[in-house]
Amino acid sequence: MTHAALPLRGDAEHVRAVVFDLWDTLVDWPAQPWDEYKRDFAQRLGLPLERFEEQWLETYPLRETGQLEQSLRLLGADDAAIAEFVPRRYAIIHEALVPRPGALETLDELRARGFKVGLISVCGDEVPEAWPETPFAGRFDAEVFSSVCGLMKPDPRIYLLAARELGVEPEECLFVGDGANDELPGAREVGMEPVLIHRPGGAPAWKSLANWTGLRVTSVPEVLDLL
Questions:
Q1: Which residues make Cβ contacts (< 8 Å) with residue 23, sequence separation at least 6?
Q2: What's the confidence (pLDDT) of residue 2?
Q3: Is 147 in the same domain as 222?
Q4: Which residue numbers in the chain have pLDDT < 70?
Q5: What gap in Å lies between CA 144 and CA 166, rounded to an integer?
Q6: Would you give the distance in Å from CA 194 to the centre of its chain?
Q7: Helices (DSSP H) in 29-125: which residue ranges?
């Protein structure tokens, strides 16, 4: 079943900025190499994969707010394991920062139309480190990385920070994301208009969004049709 984009509440004249999520919005999450990474890491630490996954989830906020080494030590990693798995993590993420079809063209078209363009990403240090070498560099008016600012979605402060750096009010923003980290309700809470993105012909990635009644698109270029 495919879903057409729904109209904005009222009209689109109030929108001055479009804020994007990164993973599974502008780029695809590297699911297969990431699963292999965690499997190998669990084996290296001598942990059953299920237990490793539990601890990995528990320490997730540390990794996404710039405390990667601390999170790995809590998992039981020693210096040798850190020396092995940190560079591998960086390599996987760096290689994955490839724009989805139409993403760059959409960003450029939004700016050509006079819209501000922002990014809010829950990510580790590896994303901002690689960012200047990616095709996305220079295409945003504001970039907010959780590992830099120390905040994660859906904390209202991370959305407000992005709006402030864009020089707009939250109510003047669309927020486009796949829904991870409860980001869509978080955006709505501060006044942004949330837009769900998921693959055409498929369901949203997150079960909590199965009955989403708000705006939705199935490709990045469809965002232009909302404005």
A1: 29, 121, 122, 123, 178, 180
A2: 37
A3: yes
A4: 1-12
A5: 11
A6: 14
A7: 31-45, 49-58, 60-64, 68-74, 79-96, 103-112
Structural tokens at position 68: 């990667």
Q: Are residues 84 and 148 in the same domain?
A: no
Please tell me the total count of domains within the chain.
Answer: 2
**What are the phi and psi torsion angles at 73 (to 5°)?**
-70, -35
pLDDT for res 61? 97
Domain endpoint, select from 96, 131, 148: 96
As given in the structure block, the two tokens for residue 92 are 């996987």
Residue with the two structure tokens 């829950």:
122
Taking alpha carbons only, the member of 203, 215, 181, 209 closest to residue 23 is: 181
Are 36 and 21 within one domain?
A: no
Residue 71 is part of which domain span?
Answer: 31-96
Cβ neighbours, 10 Å, residue 196: 25
Are 64 and 122 part of one and the same domain? no
130 and 148 part of one domain: yes
Q: What pLDDT, on a 0 to 100 scale, did the predictor assign at position 5?
A: 41
